[in-house]
Amino acid sequence: MDQIVWKFRPNPEDGERIGGDADGFAFDNGSIASLVREVIQNSYGQDMAGGPVKISFDFLELKGQERKNFENAMDWEELERHLHGVVEQSFNGCERFKRELKELNATNRGFRLLRISDSGTRGLTGPETGADGNFASLCRNKLTNTQTSGGGSYGLGKVVLWAYSGIGATLFFSELSEKDELGSKRLFGRANLPFHETDEDGETYEWQGSGWFGQNIDGGSAKSVWEPSETLLDDLQISRNGDLGSGTTALILDFDEPYNVEDRSLIDIANELNTEIQRNYWPLLTQGNLEIDISVKEHGNVEYQKEIRRPDLPEFEYFVKAWETQQSECIDQFTGNVDEVLHKVIEVEVPERKGTDNYKAAPATAVESTLRLISFPNIEPFDQFGNQIALIRGAGMVIDYKKFPVQTDLDYAVCGFFSAGITSRGKCYGGHQNESLNEIEMEEHRRLETFLRASEPPAHHKWDHKEQQCKALFPRLAKKAFDGLWDQIKESLRAAVRPETVGEGHTNIGLSRLLRFGSSGAIDHEGRLSLSIRDHQFESGNWTIKGEIFNSKTETWAAKLSVYIAEDSGGRAQELNIESLRVDNQLVDTVAIGANFSSSEKSVEFELVTSDDTPYKHLLSQAEIDIRVDKTTLKKRV
Prior knowledge:
Layout: E1 4-10, H1 33-44, E2 53-62, H2 64-73, H3 76-87, H4 94-104, E3 111-119, H5 134-140, H6 159-163, E4 169-180, E5 183-192, E6 196-200, E7 203-217, E8 221-223, E9 225-226, H7 230-235, E10 247-253, H8 266-287, E11 290-298, E12 301-308, H9 317-324, E13 341-350, E14 365-377, E15 388-392, E16 398-403, E17 412-419, H10 439-454, H11 468-473, H12 478-497, E18 507-508, E19 529-539, E20 542-551, E21 557-565, E22 574-576, E23 578-583, E24 586-588, E25 595-599, E26 603-610, E27 625-632
Parallel strand pairs: 2-11, 15-17
Antiparallel strand pairs: 1-7, 2-3, 3-10, 4-5, 4-10, 5-7, 5-9, 6-7, 7-8, 11-12, 13-14, 14-17, 15-16, 18-27, 19-20, 20-26, 21-22, 21-25, 21-27, 23-24, 23-26
Helix pairs in contact: 3-4
């Protein structure tokens, strides 16, 4: 096998100097979310539908002999020579290269890498150059994506791989789903550098910026290395486990967050990565179509490991519940309790589509989609999503959490999701419903998917009729279609939470309302209380009432639970004695009226039984009963 080296493109004779890739500015690099969204979307776009797509994110910091082996294997001496040429330039981005080279040469600094591996995907198939195949699209070409389905429309998603490299270089190793005549294992690399100069033997050479890592060929370029040795792959830290099957491993050299000058700990980054994966891809995780592993290895030791098979962060719990609730268990309007799910069909008016080289013309049509709303306690960490709807299409990613303000006096919140379009596995309604559809119906969902996809900017973080591709494919009535969609969601939210006021400070069992509690005795620093009734029954002269009390803060708090006969006329309510009260299955002492308890949890479950020792015993079986919970000041013995 010929020598494996870095080869860079000489600057053209016209002398044009390019200071870097403008493509990277199409993404909001304010957090690691951009990396999460684009990497997973690109891998899932190569899904072979044979099971879940599996992706691992492995952070590595190499030192000592392990780093020496790595640098020797990846021709670091030649790459570093070109990087030194970059830092001598005055372009805006060159300061980052200068900073990173200085850090890499520091005696106590390791070589940071991020290795991203997927499986259950096609791999880097296709010829070395040209318009066909995954290989040339990722490793050779720029802005040549011709996909008409899946995640991206621009071919820009791959840019984030180089954006997160402090030295603008990424390596790839792929096992192909379809064996090429040259083999089934393929190694390659690319560097995206700005214009730079190098000196050699007294001569100054100008370089355009693009560089390739591979088998040395004549003409100033490099080509793929087929069937590389396991020793080489191990030294490059890019070897794939035997059970991964077909797919691709990308190795980001000198992993560096482009929006942070100071390096964060890899464990902190891994924790944020976990959150952003679940924030953006809980639909795919919930469907079982995506599995993620995250690890951090430093100083030869694994310091962090996380498997994500389902969304497990509490802030996304209610979105998942809304997704998984059976339609037969959904309701038409909230009654005030938490965990209630509303299901509604929304029709999207897809405008007429103009014919292009990649799309056939299509008439306007109305296509069904799914809206799900769920009620939840207005406490941390759930409250950050109050009145927010997750917008989802067939790619399985949350495009945006769009807020729809709804004015109510209820002390619970609502979130939900809107899902539309068709997935790569042929599921409609954004993957939420699996019923069998005929080909005409499937085509309608494809048209909606195309409309939504065309309205997304390169970062895929919103739907906007002003996007260039949307204007090209849907030149008429796109704005009206989105305005109509937002209006339908707003009205559905308003109708679902329209309150039927019972009275401040108590819950009426007959209506099973969740209202605002304890306003007169609330202590701000201890949070705000709300409560929900789970079950109630009357037997042998006693009411047995079960429910849950929520507190907006987790500091230790105290409250009093009281029971009354409801008074519709506005007169004084009649108190009922409590025979017994259990809070989180612990018996609580009762007082003359009500029962006091304390807790440091965000929510407690309770079960109370009223006493039959009351002059109103003959009314209890038919009366409506109010439950009241009020804050009390904690007593501390000094």
